[in-house]
## 1
Amino acid sequence: MDNLGFIVAGYTLTWVTLVWYAWRTNRRLDAASRALDEWTQTSAGAGRPAGDPGA
Amino acid sequence: MIVTNKSGKANLIGIAALATLLIGSFVGLFVVSPDRLQGDVQRLMYVHVPAAWLAFLSFFVVFLMSVLYLIQRDLKWDRVAHASAEIGVVFTVLTLALGSMWGKPTWGVWWTWDPRLTTTAIMLAIYVGYLAIRSFADDPDKRARWAAIVGIIGFANVPIVYLSVIWWRTLHQPPSSPRSVSPEILWTLLFNLLAFTLVYTYLMMRRIRLAKVEGELEQRVAYNG
């Protein structure tokens, strides 16, 4: 296979980029979901309305 | 808890995306014959072209959702636009990097100020700007309004990127058609396009969910202090 280095680099970059972005998004989602759960529990404990802020 | 049926659906699409991407990469690398003129390096087309198409699709979704937001003033459209812009930026960076890796062995240079490359770089700058402008406003409605305006005006560059190889004399090849490529190249390209579309769908589902959770958190902090 000619230009093997460019081909391998291109496919590796594609995979690494897409997997990294998916991993990063899932990590951010987990962290945000956890923060929301904690906020809901803390708010309920402090007697604040835990549900819809407009309620 | 946020994890629901939607998470299960996203995971299924994620698995399908991973499987099709694996098969598409394998076929693109080892099964399909090399190009008659360019040789093996043309195999980069099976990742470069789908990445570019998905960047276009992402920014079309940003445009559409921005219009919907301005009409209905519903933040759910802004969340979709935001998610699609971020994913579009990832695909655009990938397109430029892969194009550069293909350009070096075929053109002899990593980068040239060719109309296709230049307009693509401008497209990247516009959507990085779209993401940056969102951090300037604390109020979600104001932020969504500013972003929607950039999302609509910025989209004007997307057809220019596509048509640049037709309008101007460029080093970049013009768009291929099913009549100008062999069926095996065409089907491999279409399969990889399907894989990238599934990847986009999966990423969108997760990224929209993230925007929704972050929005709820922001709203609660703002109301409850």
## 2
Amino acid sequence: MTSADAVSALANPRFPRVGPLGVVAVALAVSAFYLLVRVGPTALAQATVNGLVTGSYFALGAAGLTLVYGVLKLLNFAWGEYLTLGAYLAVLGRTAFDLPLGVALIFGAVATAVFALLLELSMWRPMRRKGAGMFQLLLMSLGLAFVMRYVIQLVAGTEVRQVGSNVTSTIRVGDIYIGRTQLWAVLVAFAALVTLAVLLRRTRLGKQIRALSDNPELAETTGVNTDRIVLVTWILAGALAGLAGVVYGASVGVITPTLGFGIVLSLFAAAILGGLGNAYGALAGGILIGLVQEWSTLVIAANLKIAVSFVVMILVLILRPQGIFGQARTAER
Amino acid sequence: MVATTFAWVSSPDFWINVAILTATYGIFALGIQLNKGTTGITNLAQAGFMAIGAYTFAILVVREGWNSWVAMLVGVGAAMVAAVLVGLPSLRLRADYFAITTLAFAEIVRYLADNSRDLTNGSQGLAGYNNDWFKLSLSMERRLDDAGIPTPGFLVPLALVSVALLLVLTLLVGALVRTPWGRVLRAIREDEDAARALGKNTLVYKLQSLALSAALAAVAGYVLAFNLTLLTPEQFDPVFTIFAYVIVILGGLGSYVGVVISSFVLMTLLEATRFVELPLPADRVAAVRFVIVGAVLMLLVAFRPQGILGKRQEMVLGE
Amino acid sequence: MSDAVLVVEDVSKSFGAVRAVDGATIDVARGSITALIGPNGAGKSSLFNVITGFERPERGRVRFDGRSIYRLPPHIIARRGLVRTFQLTKTLSVMTVLDNMLLAAKDHPGERLTSLVLQPRASRRRERTARERAGELLERFDLGPVSGDYAGTLSGGQRKLLELARALMLEPRLVLLDEPLAGVNPTLGRRLLGHIEELRERDATTFLFVEHDMEVVMNHSDRVIVMAQGKVIADGAPHEMRGNERVIEAYLGA
């Protein structure tokens, strides 16, 4: 069996049983119907639009998180900070070099990818080589989160900074509003996620990433170069995180050092809901969490909406810890 | 300038403050030691349990007029109940899933505290729970004065009581860990399946460990509350939990005496840095401290995971 | 069979697409020493895991001493008198040999928080009796001299013995041994087998062991069960296995 054959065999797309997807679909339909009755079609449609906007950058953020988890089985608690970094670097690009937002976006994504690569080479890989266990890596990521967040705060201060995106003009379809920048954000996210999906599905690299994440032992014995795949995964994930940070910052209009930390648990919820390690899951999970958060504002106080995604995450962990697309054995002890 | 930055060595206020902080973080970290160092579970909800204890107590006293001592007992109970509720569904999951569940729980607690204005006053802070303690504290001060012991500052009674509490609890928990019950916990830490194969219901033991830790967190919460006299959700920041892990690792996983010592060392260092003059505005100075704490944790984990007092073989489990 | 201490009926366990155990049916007579053999991947350890509650089968029945233990959690099964050892020993290396043994003591009030606090004398008493029994067992297995050492410092063979001695602390009626002799030197191994036979004579303890050493299987077991690809393909007296075509084929084809 050549390495290519093995990789193909391992990386065949797996579709989950109708079970979990079906449950999600039914739950969505039932909730939608209930909300429709309770608040009317306009409010529901507006909330849905808002949810898709939020969901798109949740999906971007969760995709990187889940990719890294897939190949390394590392829950990176510092992931929110990677988003914050991307946002700040993009704003830096705008203010220091007067870059237009689109270019700043790419700058932010690339710079974060480089940072992720450097961190892997200087910290994560040496730790793994030393035989560091899960607990040590977990604590490392916690410490890293603090260092990153507060270094950013040290350098850039706690004041909110303007991204310089257009937060006032909105597009109107009937009674539904969507900000121009937000629409742009959704489109950018969509483009990035589609690119990711194609990359994972069609390219050799993508298949290797999926092979390594589904079955590391088999992938290694059939000659997949683990080190290289891990590096590439970090670059990809870093770019996605940076992108997510900029997109999120642009949608909101301002950035603060706690930008990433504020949404990191929603990102975890999205990744867990979709099944940790599964990029398609992160996509689905991100959109779902975004929807659930925004729909929840129709019935409970808006400032509780983040608690809603926490609750979803805990429910998923209790009822089906492997998420929608995950395999049962990965979650239980 | 050197003279200014070292004046704190002889200042009694400084040491009183360090004593209270040592006790607060120390009692808090005893729970983390019980969970991680002895039982092997990574509890990231400790700050949440602390908040539940402190707020339950304060709300009962301020809003319902309860007696402080009874309210404190109920607060401990509430924290323990919360621990069982969190642990029941999540302790059977993989270690990192359990960790994130506990982290999420702590965030929800903080979030709810911030948003339940009617109960907690949100970020404006809840005050007025201090009266019973204050009376006790004054009478202690008077008695100390009568005995000729100088009491520089009104926080002396709190310092004395909290440090005494820390020492007593350290002895108690340390003793508990050396019993047959503690032996099962230690077995669970190394190999849970081995413990189950020997007839131990490991879920129950893990729940007990978590609940006891939550009780300790609640007690630490009371020391915090009496020290600050105003409860706000920001005080229960996740950095508390980071501090606790630094303390536990520094002092050595499994060593309860180590918790006391490293808590004292860490708090002394941290408070001393307040006197270092940095050419930075105030909020940036706060950021420096957090960066240092995070960096210390990373360095410890990377280069000396067994801490100062721990045994290398205790860490050789590939944790 | 009325005196079968263990009855396994049509048990199946799959991991994804792999059927590790495929409709296995065995019964083990009380007081017997039964060998479970088969090529690698035959499903022997998986079957052990299912019987002892460490894996949940999709279907089947498992009865121990007349009561169903199907899908019960491992700690309850162990308490009922069905204990096991592991292929990769699970001795606790950060505890001493003696502590490993004491851990296994049954019905110890000191292990329950409430009785620890409310009945300290009962706890101390039980600890004492546990120490005595542990000491006896350790002597029997020549582990007396190392009883104060950390289990992590023992050799592989000594660890196997410790694991067996520890399992015996539970006063089991059925012991499942997963490759008890792997890595154990022949002298010690013979003593171990001697202990097993002695326990069978004295207490009618039943043993079911997985072993690859055919000499041991042929000369020290009353019955041999053969598994291959998750199924039980032969079951009978040791000498009957020699000429059995299906058995030979299973080993050659693996």
